[in-house]
Write a structure and sequence with these properties.
With about 260 residues, the protein is of the alpha/beta class. It has three domains: about 5-45; about 50-125, no CATH class; about 125-135 and about 155-258, no CATH class. The protein has nine helices and twelve strands. The protein has helices at about 10-20, 25-30, 35-45, 105-120, 140-150, 170-175, 195-205, 205-210, 245-255, and strands spanning about 50-55, 60-65, 75-85, 85-95, 100, 125-130, 160-165, 185-190, 195, 215, 220, 235. A ten-stranded mixed beta sheet has the order 5-4-3-2-1-6-7-8-10-12, with helices on one face. The chain has a two-stranded parallel sheet with strand order 9-11. α4 runs parallel beside α5 (about 140-150) and α6 runs parallel beside α7. This is F-box domain-containing protein. Pfam families: F-box, FTH. It comes from Caenorhabditis remanei.
């Protein structure tokens, strides 16, 4: 009776087809089998085709959510929990499992490493990317550390629509810089705050802002800047705390039909 072949004994063509049939969780499991299999997967770069990606940071953890459809039942959520100098990694969805305890590992470093691996295999355009950062001022350094490390990974993600839930314009600027401006069409921004002229100008100078077609700044954001900054958008929702005669005149010039 012939002995069964192990995965590594299979021809590359066969192994290639097996990996193509695996979902994200299965591939991450295969990566942990041995170095040779991990190297094979990294060379192959399987296409995950995620349509929705979300990053959520809170005072104690980071959550990364992937979905390859609009069906929430198919979501994959991985939690990276801060524990002093250690990190707990757990699969929250679809089934949940015991945490993996990584000693002497920073949870943001662990997250960024896994995120970079996943995104390096993302060949299709992400339809919506959501970034949610806490309002708490004391979490600003952690949020800044996260975005600094994401940017250091030289990522340039193809994203159609981005939802930025943060009060800090510096975080918005940093995150937009890891997105390819040639693909970004819609920008949505929310969290309770008031923007100064200097802050909105910083965002307006980005290519992402100039090339996007739609902008929605949620009601809790109040602006103090010229209407002309938004004249190129095909669809626009912004909120002004005070509407002056100058703003109305500018609006009439930008949108004669209004």
């Amino acid at each position: 009776m012939a002995s069964e072949l192990s995965l590594l004994q299979m021809p590359d063509v066969a192994l290639n087809e097996i990996v193509k049939k695996c979902d994200y969780i299965s591939i991450q499991t295969l990566r942990k089998v041995c170095r040779d299999l991990r190297n094979f997967i990294e060379h192959l770069k399987p296409d995950y085709q995620f349509t929705n990606v979300s990053i959520e940071l809170d005072p104690y953890s980071l959550e990364l959510t992937f979905n390859d459809s609009d069906d929430e039942e198919k979501e994959i959520t991985i939690r990276y929990r801060h524990d002093g100098s250690h990190c707990y990694v757990s699969l929250v969805k679809p089934s949940g499992k015991n945490s993996e305890h990584l000693l002497n590992t920073n949870y943001i470093d662990c997250f960024c490493r896994d995120f970079a691996i996943a995104m390096s295999s993302q060949k299709s355009i992400i339809q919506q990317f959501t970034l949610s950062l806490p309002v708490d001022f004391y979490m600003k350094s952690s949020a800044g550390d996260l975005l600094k490390k994401l940017k250091a990974g030289n990522l340039l993600l193809k994203v159609r629509s981005v939802v930025l839930l943060t009060k800090w314009t510096s975080m918005i600027v940093r995150f937009l810089q890891i997105l390819d401006p040639n693909y970004l069409e819609t920008i949505k921004i929310g969290r309770n705050d008031y923007w100064t002229m200097k802050e909105i100008t910083e965002i307006c100078q980005l290519e992402h802002f100039k090339k996007a077609k739609e902008l929605e700044i949620l009601q809790s954001f109040f602006l103090n800047c010229p209407v002309e900054n938004f004249s190129h958008f095909e669809k626009l929702t912004v909120w002004y705390m005070i509407v002056t005669a100058d703003i109305l005149r500018s609006l009439k010039q930008v949108c004669p039909d209004v």
